[in-house]
Design goal:
Strand 3 and strand 4 (253-258) form a beta hairpin. Helix 4 (98-131) packs antiparallel against helix 5 (139-170). The chain has a domain at 6-199 and 288-350. The relative contact order is 0.13. Helix content is 71%, strand content 5%. Strands 1-2-4-3 form a 4-stranded mixed β-sheet. With 419 residues, the chain is mostly helical.
Length: 419
């Protein structure tokens, strides 16, 4: 059974405080909902849509609170009843070699977590999103997506985990080699995700010749951006929400536009959105974020070296806290992800602050590239209306979780740019 030592006490308190912090941010955001539509959005929003957006925010908040309480409760119950120790005893009893034993331990923990989260995913898709007119996912599409995701996780995730486990089981200074290996894989995935993995879930069709294609390439040329391809993604297959993104590195940049985005925006607005994304590349935000991510993983793997060593002070306390009797690496890897959550939470706040700064810079770049803020502003207004965005989130909620500044804040900042 688990030993309720100092590490266990710290983790229980930390998890509870993080939940309370999220709960407080959610409640403050709900209290911060304004009854009247901000004047800035007149003409694109209307009172009916504004009320619907606030109802959507309340429904999302209630769902978030219930799901977080349930997840935390299940984790603590499973932990205190010795669930992790049971998984460890079961996998060790099969007498496999260390790497297959570790993979089986992680697989059982993952499948258990997946099955617990599946009802929430189904409810969110087919009840919550359906109620507000967003969902276009059919049960067949949902099922196929789940199967594809599980297969990819088993093949790709299994291969990566097998490598990490082997390194920690066999190689001196394992954390360094694990970090280097993971970094190489991470960089490789930057190329494989848009060309191999995304097409498994969505259809990408080249944008036909016309005004939009001409204006996008004109903007790319003006910004000295090496654009090679523009594709339309069938986002409407799953949702009415809109988005756009860039993929590719070096001199091979590709743009993907949701079909729902093209349907609802003018050409200047779409060019404004793409100019904003070009701004992220020109300001080196993508590279900076990648470097920060690699540095974060260096810290994670360094600490993981202690967590997966049962003989170390930290490793011993960790294994005892969760009732793990074996000296295998895999339990330490899984448990470390739980223990690391408070630190990860703080790191995510820092990354969100960095991301919001980058959004302001990309907005300014797009404003100067088009010599007006109006096109991007109109696009943001329409996007917020289409996605029923909360126009008045509480500052604490923004600070903790938002990678983008509130729409109204971004609009005000763009209007202050001198051209």
């Amino acid at each position: 059974m688990p030993e309720f030592n100092a590490l266990a006490l710290f983790l229980v308190i930390a998890l509870f405080l993080l939940w309370k912090l999220d709960f407080a941010a959610t409640i403050l955001t709900l209290k911060n909902l304004k009854p009247e539509l901000p004047d800035e959005f007149d003409g694109i929003w209307n009172d009916e849509k504004y009320r619907k957006a606030q109802t959507y925010e309340k429904a999302q908040s209630q769902f978030s609170i219930i799901s977080s309480i349930t997840s935390l409760g299940i984790l603590l119950t499973f932990w205190f009843l010795g669930g992790f120790g049971w998984i460890d005893s079961f996998t060790q009893s099969l007498n496999f070699s260390p790497v297959p034993t570790g993979l089986l331990f992680i697989a059982i923990a993952y499948v258990g977590s997946y099955l617990l989260s599946l009802p929430f995913s189904i409810y969110n898709t087919f009840v919550l999103e359906e109620k507000f007119g967003f969902n276009k996912t059919t049960p067949k599409t949902f099922l196929i997506d789940q199967i594809k995701s599980l297969i990819l996780t088993a093949i790709l995730g299994g291969a990566i985990l097998a490598l990490i486990l082997w390194i920690f089981e066999s190689v001196p200074n394992a954390w360094i080699w694990a970090w280097i290996s993971f970094t190489i894989i991470l960089l490789l995935l930057q190329y494989l995700i848009p060309t191999v993995f995304l097409p498994l879930f969505n259809k990408f069709t080249p944008l036909e010749d016309g005004e939009l294609k001409t204006e996008v390439f004109r903007m790319a040329e003006q910004c000295e951006f090496p654009l090679t391809e523009i594709s339309i993604m069938d986002g409407s297959k799953r949702s009415t929400k809109s988005n756009a993104f860039f993929t590719g590195f070096g001199k091979n940049k590709k743009i993907a536009l949701y079909d729902t985005l093209i349907e609802k925006h003018t050409t200047p607005e779409l060019v404004g959105v793409l100019a904003h994304e070009i701004g992220h590349f020109k300001k080196k935000h993508i590279v900076q974020t990648l470097i920060l991510t690699i540095v974060q993983f260096a810290i994670i793997f360094f600490l993981l070296g202690y967590a997966t060593t049962p003989e170390s002070t930290f490793g011993s306390a960790l294994y005892n806290a969760f009732g793990i009797q074996s000296a295998s690496v895999a339990p330490g890897l899984v448990l470390f992800m739980i223990v690391f959550k408070p630190v990860s939470y703080l790191l995510s706040i820092g990354m969100s602050i960095f991301s919001r700064k980058n959004e302001f810079e990309a907005d300014e770049y797009a404003t100067r590239a088009q010599n007006t803020p109006n096109h991007l502003i109109d696009a943001l207004k329409k996007l917020s209306a289409n996605n029923l965005s909360n126009l008045t989130p509480h500052p604490l909620e923004v600070f903790l979780h938002h990678s983008h500044p509130p729409v109204l804040t971004r609009i005000k900042a763009m209007r202050k740019i001198s051209l």
